[in-house]
């Protein structure tokens, strides 16, 4: 793989809540165009906080987030753990939301909505309501909504954590296909070593109290990744490596906590 251009840089990021909860301390992270990065770490290490800072949903207490080429409208798509769909609106109307908030009519962007639904395999469900869909399908709608503006960066906060394992594997496979088609950059928050190894090319392991980057694991396995990769010795070895890094991060926490 060739040298990738930088997309964004987070430098010396601190985030303190309510004057005394230090969620992040001196977090440094460079994201390159085309990266699939997983943020992996124990509960409370600040993964969601880091993602929300990148999304601009909150501001850091200190430090800088710099975007190469600036951040334009529609450059970011965000997917949360819950699909957060409007139950009274159809699939099509739900996916319309980011454009609607920008003042565009449904007719004007119907082509883009259908493109996004096709990307997630739901092109025949545009008139359905969320209650008529399975958990996995609702999550696909949520992903289509994040894709509809054709963002450069997709931020995903444990999007598949609430799904059963078979559905989760399927959506992991589909997400990689999608990323291959769109050539977008993804930052993916997860608790799962297995999921992080399957999906990403870089795993950023975070430690808690205060939240910071503890280690980085490069997943040197080629894409496309298939079921054969999931059952390979290489995958098992990479999972062991990521798991060791995670335990290292948790021990750092323990040492600090008991110091
Ligand atoms: N709005 C908030 N107000 C006060 N404290 C907060 C707020 N959001 C997060 N925190 C605290 O900041 C720390 C980091 O939280 P964050 O949700 O980012 O961690 P996380 O790694 O995503 O956790 P999890 O894996 O459990 O979702 C935690 O101690 C949390 O309690």
TrEMBL record:
Keywords: ATP-binding, Nucleotide-binding, Transport
Family, as annotated: Belongs to the ABC transporter superfamily.
Keyword Nucleotide-binding: yes
Iron as UniProt keyword: no
The protein's name: Nitrate ABC transporter ATPase
One Pfam family per UniProt: ABC_tran
MF annotations from Gene Ontology: ATP binding; ATP hydrolysis activity
Residue intervals of the ABC transporter domain: 8-233
Source organism, top-level taxon: Bacteria
